[in-house]
Task: structure prediction
Amino acid sequence: MKPLLCLFISLLATFPITGYSVNSESYERDLLGALERLLAHDQGNAAAQLETLTQSYPNSRSGYLLYADLLAARGGLTPAISQAMGHLERDVVSELREQLSIRWHYWHTIRVARQDLWPAALLQLSGQQKIVLYMDIPAARLIVYEKDGGRLKEVGNFYASIGVAGFKKRREGDQKTPVGVYRITGFIPGRKLHERYGSGALPIDYPNELDQIYERTGDGIWLHGTEPGFINRAPRASDGCLSLANGDFLALHRIIGDTPSVPVVIDAAPEWIAPTELLRRREQLSRTITRWFKARLESDTPLLDRLYSRLPYSDELAHHSSRAQPSSGFTGLAGNLRLEDTQLLTYPGEERLYVADLWLTHGPQTKLGIRQYWHRTTDNEWKIVKEFSIRPNG
Result:
Protein backbone atom coordinates (compact mmCIF):
# COMPACT_ATOMS: atom_id res chain seq x y z
CA MET A 1 0.00 0.00 0.00
CA LYS A 2 1.43 3.30 -1.18
CA PRO A 3 1.85 5.54 1.88
CA LEU A 4 1.44 2.86 4.55
CA LEU A 5 3.56 3.88 7.50
CA CYS A 6 6.40 4.91 5.22
CA LEU A 7 8.64 6.08 8.01
CA PHE A 8 8.05 2.95 10.08
CA ILE A 9 8.83 0.79 7.07
CA SER A 10 12.11 2.60 6.48
CA LEU A 11 13.06 2.26 10.14
CA LEU A 12 11.88 -1.29 10.79
CA ALA A 13 11.71 -3.21 7.54
CA THR A 14 14.99 -4.98 8.26
CA PHE A 15 13.61 -6.45 11.50
CA PRO A 16 11.97 -9.87 11.14
CA ILE A 17 8.33 -10.13 12.10
CA THR A 18 8.42 -12.89 14.67
CA GLY A 19 6.71 -13.52 17.99
CA TYR A 20 8.00 -12.23 21.29
CA SER A 21 7.41 -13.45 24.80
CA VAL A 22 5.80 -10.71 26.87
CA ASN A 23 3.20 -10.79 29.62
CA SER A 24 -0.23 -11.13 27.97
CA GLU A 25 -1.54 -8.11 29.91
CA SER A 26 1.37 -5.93 28.87
CA TYR A 27 0.81 -2.55 27.25
CA GLU A 28 4.03 -3.07 25.34
CA ARG A 29 2.78 -6.38 23.95
CA ASP A 30 -0.45 -4.77 22.69
CA LEU A 31 1.38 -1.81 21.18
CA LEU A 32 3.94 -3.91 19.34
CA GLY A 33 1.26 -6.39 18.29
CA ALA A 34 -0.60 -3.57 16.53
CA LEU A 35 2.61 -2.43 14.86
CA GLU A 36 3.28 -5.98 13.69
CA ARG A 37 -0.13 -6.12 12.01
CA LEU A 38 0.53 -2.79 10.31
CA LEU A 39 3.82 -4.00 8.92
CA ALA A 40 2.06 -7.16 7.70
CA HIS A 41 -0.51 -4.93 5.89
CA ASP A 42 -3.32 -6.33 8.03
CA GLN A 43 -5.12 -2.99 8.28
CA GLY A 44 -8.45 -4.27 9.53
CA ASN A 45 -7.11 -6.09 12.58
CA ALA A 46 -4.57 -3.33 13.18
CA ALA A 47 -7.32 -0.71 13.29
CA ALA A 48 -9.42 -2.81 15.68
CA GLN A 49 -6.44 -3.44 17.96
CA LEU A 50 -5.40 0.22 17.97
CA GLU A 51 -8.93 1.34 18.76
CA THR A 52 -9.00 -1.05 21.73
CA LEU A 53 -5.50 0.00 22.77
CA THR A 54 -6.29 3.72 22.81
CA GLN A 55 -9.50 3.07 24.75
CA SER A 56 -7.66 0.93 27.30
CA TYR A 57 -4.68 3.29 27.48
CA PRO A 58 -6.01 6.81 26.80
CA ASN A 59 -2.56 8.28 27.54
CA SER A 60 -0.81 6.20 24.88
CA ARG A 61 0.54 8.84 22.54
CA SER A 62 2.37 6.12 20.59
CA GLY A 63 -0.94 4.30 20.10
CA TYR A 64 -2.65 7.43 18.78
CA LEU A 65 0.32 8.11 16.52
CA LEU A 66 0.04 4.66 14.93
CA TYR A 67 -3.73 5.02 14.61
CA ALA A 68 -3.38 8.43 12.95
CA ASP A 69 -0.85 7.08 10.47
CA LEU A 70 -3.13 4.15 9.67
CA LEU A 71 -6.18 6.37 9.08
CA ALA A 72 -4.15 8.76 6.92
CA ALA A 73 -2.82 5.85 4.87
CA ARG A 74 -6.31 4.38 4.43
CA GLY A 75 -7.42 7.77 3.15
CA GLY A 76 -4.68 7.77 0.53
CA LEU A 77 -2.74 10.52 2.26
CA THR A 78 0.86 10.86 3.34
CA PRO A 79 0.52 10.97 7.14
CA ALA A 80 0.85 14.63 8.09
CA ILE A 81 1.83 13.61 11.59
CA SER A 82 5.10 12.19 10.26
CA GLN A 83 6.29 15.67 9.31
CA ALA A 84 8.66 17.43 11.69
CA MET A 85 6.89 19.76 14.11
CA GLY A 86 9.30 22.68 14.03
CA HIS A 87 7.33 24.86 16.43
CA LEU A 88 8.11 22.46 19.28
CA GLU A 89 11.30 22.66 21.30
CA ARG A 90 11.88 19.00 20.47
CA ASP A 91 10.30 16.86 17.79
CA VAL A 92 7.81 14.92 19.89
CA VAL A 93 6.67 12.77 16.99
CA SER A 94 10.22 11.68 16.22
CA GLU A 95 10.67 10.77 19.87
CA LEU A 96 7.55 8.60 19.79
CA ARG A 97 8.79 6.87 16.64
CA GLU A 98 12.19 6.33 18.23
CA GLN A 99 10.54 4.76 21.28
CA LEU A 100 8.58 2.36 19.09
CA SER A 101 11.67 1.51 17.05
CA ILE A 102 13.73 0.75 20.16
CA ARG A 103 11.02 -1.45 21.65
CA TRP A 104 10.55 -3.35 18.41
CA HIS A 105 14.28 -3.80 17.86
CA TYR A 106 14.72 -5.16 21.39
CA TRP A 107 12.05 -7.86 21.16
CA HIS A 108 12.73 -8.88 17.56
CA THR A 109 16.51 -8.63 17.29
CA ILE A 110 18.44 -7.96 20.50
CA ARG A 111 16.63 -10.37 22.81
CA VAL A 112 16.69 -13.16 20.24
CA ALA A 113 20.46 -12.76 19.82
CA ARG A 114 20.97 -13.00 23.58
CA GLN A 115 19.37 -16.36 24.18
CA ASP A 116 21.46 -18.28 26.75
CA LEU A 117 23.75 -15.28 27.34
CA TRP A 118 24.12 -13.23 30.53
CA PRO A 119 25.32 -9.71 31.34
CA ALA A 120 29.08 -9.89 31.95
CA ALA A 121 28.69 -7.32 34.73
CA LEU A 122 26.74 -9.74 36.95
CA LEU A 123 29.52 -12.10 38.02
CA GLN A 124 28.10 -13.27 41.34
CA LEU A 125 25.45 -12.21 43.83
CA SER A 126 26.10 -12.68 47.50
CA GLY A 127 24.16 -15.27 49.49
CA GLN A 128 22.12 -12.54 51.15
CA GLN A 129 21.30 -10.72 47.90
CA LYS A 130 18.25 -12.06 46.06
CA ILE A 131 17.55 -9.33 43.49
CA VAL A 132 19.70 -7.28 41.09
CA LEU A 133 18.61 -4.68 38.52
CA TYR A 134 20.46 -4.33 35.23
CA MET A 135 19.91 -1.25 33.03
CA ASP A 136 20.93 -1.86 29.43
CA ILE A 137 21.08 1.73 28.16
CA PRO A 138 21.35 1.05 24.38
CA ALA A 139 18.32 -1.27 24.53
CA ALA A 140 16.42 1.06 26.92
CA ARG A 141 15.62 -1.97 29.12
CA LEU A 142 15.64 -2.32 32.89
CA ILE A 143 15.93 -6.06 33.56
CA VAL A 144 15.25 -7.56 36.97
CA TYR A 145 17.06 -10.75 37.93
CA GLU A 146 16.33 -12.99 40.90
CA LYS A 147 18.83 -15.50 42.22
CA ASP A 148 17.58 -19.02 41.57
CA GLY A 149 20.05 -21.44 43.12
CA GLY A 150 23.39 -20.77 41.50
CA ARG A 151 21.89 -18.97 38.48
CA LEU A 152 19.99 -15.78 37.77
CA LYS A 153 16.39 -15.85 36.56
CA GLU A 154 14.77 -12.93 34.77
CA VAL A 155 11.63 -11.87 36.67
CA GLY A 156 10.99 -8.43 35.17
CA ASN A 157 11.83 -6.58 31.97
CA PHE A 158 10.76 -2.95 31.46
CA TYR A 159 11.27 -0.18 28.93
CA ALA A 160 13.00 2.72 30.71
CA SER A 161 14.10 6.25 29.76
CA ILE A 162 17.41 7.89 30.69
CA GLY A 163 18.60 11.51 30.94
CA VAL A 164 17.77 13.93 28.15
CA ALA A 165 21.50 14.63 27.69
CA GLY A 166 22.47 10.95 27.67
CA PHE A 167 24.67 9.11 30.16
CA LYS A 168 27.95 9.29 32.11
CA LYS A 169 26.87 11.85 34.66
CA ARG A 170 29.70 14.12 35.79
CA ARG A 171 28.22 17.18 37.44
CA GLU A 172 25.04 18.51 38.99
CA GLY A 173 22.47 19.65 36.47
CA ASP A 174 24.06 17.99 33.40
CA GLN A 175 20.84 15.96 32.83
CA LYS A 176 22.83 12.76 32.31
CA THR A 177 22.28 9.32 33.83
CA PRO A 178 25.21 7.88 35.80
CA VAL A 179 26.94 4.71 34.63
CA GLY A 180 28.19 2.27 37.27
CA VAL A 181 27.12 0.13 40.21
CA TYR A 182 24.63 1.70 42.61
CA ARG A 183 22.23 0.59 45.31
CA ILE A 184 18.62 1.43 46.10
CA THR A 185 18.42 3.32 49.38
CA GLY A 186 14.67 3.46 50.00
CA PHE A 187 11.19 4.03 48.60
CA ILE A 188 9.18 7.27 48.31
CA PRO A 189 5.45 6.83 47.52
CA GLY A 190 3.98 8.96 44.77
CA ARG A 191 1.66 10.83 47.14
CA LYS A 192 4.73 12.45 48.75
CA LEU A 193 6.21 13.60 45.43
CA HIS A 194 5.50 16.03 42.63
CA GLU A 195 3.22 14.46 40.03
CA ARG A 196 6.05 14.30 37.45
CA TYR A 197 7.45 11.31 39.38
CA GLY A 198 4.27 9.31 38.89
CA SER A 199 3.66 6.32 41.14
CA GLY A 200 6.76 6.79 43.29
CA ALA A 201 10.53 6.71 43.40
CA LEU A 202 13.40 4.43 44.39
CA PRO A 203 16.45 6.61 45.14
CA ILE A 204 19.95 5.25 44.47
CA ASP A 205 23.25 6.15 46.13
CA TYR A 206 24.73 8.40 43.43
CA PRO A 207 27.39 9.71 43.97
CA ASN A 208 28.89 6.47 45.28
CA GLU A 209 32.42 6.03 46.65
CA LEU A 210 33.98 5.90 43.20
CA ASP A 211 32.05 8.95 41.99
CA GLN A 212 33.31 10.86 45.01
CA ILE A 213 36.91 9.95 44.16
CA TYR A 214 36.26 11.34 40.67
CA GLU A 215 34.71 14.44 42.32
CA ARG A 216 31.44 13.96 40.45
CA THR A 217 28.60 16.12 41.74
CA GLY A 218 24.81 16.06 41.89
CA ASP A 219 22.24 13.95 43.70
CA GLY A 220 18.60 12.94 43.51
CA ILE A 221 19.08 10.15 40.96
CA TRP A 222 16.03 7.91 41.22
CA LEU A 223 14.12 5.17 39.51
CA HIS A 224 10.62 6.61 39.23
CA GLY A 225 7.29 6.60 37.41
CA THR A 226 5.89 8.92 34.74
CA GLU A 227 3.81 12.09 35.02
CA PRO A 228 0.07 12.24 34.17
CA GLY A 229 -0.69 12.31 30.45
CA PHE A 230 2.10 9.87 29.56
CA ILE A 231 2.51 6.12 29.66
CA ASN A 232 6.23 6.27 28.88
CA ARG A 233 8.68 9.03 28.16
CA ALA A 234 10.97 9.24 25.14
CA PRO A 235 14.21 7.18 25.35
CA ARG A 236 16.04 10.30 26.60
CA ALA A 237 13.66 12.42 28.61
CA SER A 238 14.60 12.69 32.31
CA ASP A 239 16.95 14.90 34.29
CA GLY A 240 19.23 11.89 34.78
CA CYS A 241 16.92 9.40 36.46
CA LEU A 242 15.56 6.13 35.09
CA SER A 243 11.88 6.66 34.27
CA LEU A 244 9.39 3.81 33.84
CA ALA A 245 5.68 3.59 33.08
CA ASN A 246 3.71 3.85 36.32
CA GLY A 247 2.41 0.29 36.02
CA ASP A 248 5.94 -0.98 35.42
CA PHE A 249 7.27 1.00 38.37
CA LEU A 250 4.65 -0.50 40.68
CA ALA A 251 5.45 -3.99 39.34
CA LEU A 252 9.15 -3.33 39.99
CA HIS A 253 8.43 -2.19 43.53
CA ARG A 254 6.36 -5.32 44.17
CA ILE A 255 9.27 -7.51 43.03
CA ILE A 256 11.78 -5.70 45.22
CA GLY A 257 9.52 -5.43 48.25
CA ASP A 258 11.47 -4.58 51.38
CA THR A 259 14.74 -6.09 50.14
CA PRO A 260 17.51 -3.79 51.42
CA SER A 261 20.23 -2.27 49.28
CA VAL A 262 19.29 -3.81 45.91
CA PRO A 263 22.17 -3.35 43.40
CA VAL A 264 21.39 -1.32 40.28
CA VAL A 265 23.96 -1.87 37.52
CA ILE A 266 23.67 0.86 34.85
CA ASP A 267 25.59 -0.11 31.71
CA ALA A 268 26.13 1.97 28.58
CA ALA A 269 28.21 -0.67 26.76
CA PRO A 270 26.68 -4.02 27.76
CA GLU A 271 28.59 -7.23 27.14
CA TRP A 272 26.61 -10.48 27.04
CA ILE A 273 28.59 -13.69 27.48
CA ALA A 274 28.04 -17.44 27.78
CA PRO A 275 27.71 -18.99 31.26
CA THR A 276 31.06 -20.77 30.87
CA GLU A 277 32.86 -17.47 30.25
CA LEU A 278 31.01 -15.85 33.14
CA LEU A 279 32.16 -18.66 35.43
CA ARG A 280 35.76 -18.31 34.21
CA ARG A 281 35.83 -14.60 35.00
CA ARG A 282 34.17 -15.15 38.36
CA GLU A 283 36.70 -17.78 39.37
CA GLN A 284 39.62 -15.62 38.26
CA LEU A 285 38.58 -12.77 40.55
CA SER A 286 37.58 -15.15 43.37
CA ARG A 287 41.05 -16.72 43.37
CA THR A 288 42.61 -13.27 43.61
CA ILE A 289 40.39 -12.33 46.57
CA THR A 290 41.25 -15.60 48.33
CA ARG A 291 44.92 -14.78 47.83
CA TRP A 292 44.40 -11.32 49.29
CA PHE A 293 42.47 -12.70 52.29
CA LYS A 294 45.23 -15.17 53.11
CA ALA A 295 47.82 -12.39 52.87
CA ARG A 296 45.82 -10.24 55.30
CA LEU A 297 45.48 -13.08 57.80
CA GLU A 298 49.18 -13.86 57.60
CA SER A 299 50.27 -10.19 57.50
CA ASP A 300 52.17 -10.87 54.28
CA THR A 301 53.33 -7.28 53.79
CA PRO A 302 55.28 -7.77 50.52
CA LEU A 303 52.27 -9.38 48.83
CA LEU A 304 49.86 -6.79 50.23
CA ASP A 305 52.09 -4.00 48.94
CA ARG A 306 51.80 -5.50 45.47
CA LEU A 307 48.02 -5.89 45.72
CA TYR A 308 47.21 -2.39 46.97
CA SER A 309 47.72 0.01 44.07
CA ARG A 310 48.59 3.67 43.98
CA LEU A 311 46.09 5.89 42.22
CA PRO A 312 45.64 6.85 39.46
CA TYR A 313 44.78 3.78 37.45
CA SER A 314 43.11 5.93 34.74
CA ASP A 315 43.76 9.29 33.10
CA GLU A 316 40.68 10.81 34.72
CA LEU A 317 42.24 10.23 38.16
CA ALA A 318 45.58 11.76 37.18
CA HIS A 319 45.40 14.45 39.90
CA HIS A 320 45.08 11.75 42.61
CA SER A 321 48.23 10.15 43.99
CA SER A 322 47.07 8.54 47.24
CA ARG A 323 47.68 4.84 47.78
CA ALA A 324 44.76 2.53 48.41
CA GLN A 325 44.67 1.75 52.13
CA PRO A 326 43.31 -1.41 53.78
CA SER A 327 40.15 -0.91 55.79
CA SER A 328 40.42 -1.13 59.56
CA GLY A 329 38.06 -4.13 59.81
CA PHE A 330 40.84 -6.61 60.63
CA THR A 331 42.29 -4.59 63.50
CA GLY A 332 42.51 -6.55 66.77
CA LEU A 333 40.89 -9.73 65.45
CA ALA A 334 42.27 -13.22 66.02
CA GLY A 335 43.16 -15.70 63.33
CA ASN A 336 39.79 -17.47 63.11
CA LEU A 337 38.34 -14.80 60.83
CA ARG A 338 36.47 -16.39 57.89
CA LEU A 339 35.52 -15.10 54.45
CA GLU A 340 31.87 -16.10 54.48
CA ASP A 341 30.31 -14.50 51.40
CA THR A 342 31.19 -12.44 48.32
CA GLN A 343 29.41 -10.41 45.67
CA LEU A 344 31.29 -9.68 42.45
CA LEU A 345 30.26 -7.17 39.78
CA THR A 346 32.08 -5.74 36.81
CA TYR A 347 31.93 -1.94 37.06
CA PRO A 348 30.43 -0.45 33.86
CA GLY A 349 32.03 2.59 32.31
CA GLU A 350 35.50 1.82 33.67
CA GLU A 351 38.33 -0.08 32.02
CA ARG A 352 38.76 -3.51 33.67
CA LEU A 353 37.35 -2.40 37.04
CA TYR A 354 35.42 -4.69 39.41
CA VAL A 355 33.64 -4.13 42.70
CA ALA A 356 33.68 -6.88 45.33
CA ASP A 357 31.57 -6.88 48.50
CA LEU A 358 33.06 -9.24 51.07
CA TRP A 359 31.42 -10.50 54.26
CA LEU A 360 33.69 -11.78 57.00
CA THR A 361 32.76 -13.40 60.29
CA HIS A 362 34.63 -13.63 63.57
CA GLY A 363 32.73 -15.86 65.95
CA PRO A 364 28.93 -16.05 66.11
CA GLN A 365 28.32 -12.32 66.69
CA THR A 366 30.88 -10.34 64.68
CA LYS A 367 30.22 -9.67 61.01
CA LEU A 368 32.35 -7.35 58.92
CA GLY A 369 31.67 -5.90 55.48
CA ILE A 370 34.38 -4.71 53.09
CA ARG A 371 33.93 -3.21 49.62
CA GLN A 372 36.91 -3.38 47.28
CA TYR A 373 37.46 -1.87 43.85
CA TRP A 374 39.78 -4.14 41.88
CA HIS A 375 41.57 -3.15 38.68
CA ARG A 376 42.95 -5.74 36.29
CA THR A 377 45.98 -4.28 34.53
CA THR A 378 46.97 -4.86 30.91
CA ASP A 379 49.54 -7.34 32.27
CA ASN A 380 46.68 -9.27 33.90
CA GLU A 381 47.75 -8.30 37.41
CA TRP A 382 45.08 -7.48 39.97
CA LYS A 383 45.30 -4.32 42.10
CA ILE A 384 43.02 -2.90 44.79
CA VAL A 385 42.51 0.78 43.99
CA LYS A 386 40.10 1.52 46.85
CA GLU A 387 38.77 -0.30 49.90
CA PHE A 388 35.98 0.67 52.33
CA SER A 389 34.22 -0.79 55.33
CA ILE A 390 30.48 -1.21 54.72
CA ARG A 391 27.47 -1.94 56.89
CA PRO A 392 26.09 -5.48 57.10
CA ASN A 393 23.19 -4.65 54.72
CA GLY A 394 25.57 -3.13 52.13
About this structure: The radius of gyration is 24 Å. Confidence is low (pLDDT under 50) at residues 1-24, 79-89.
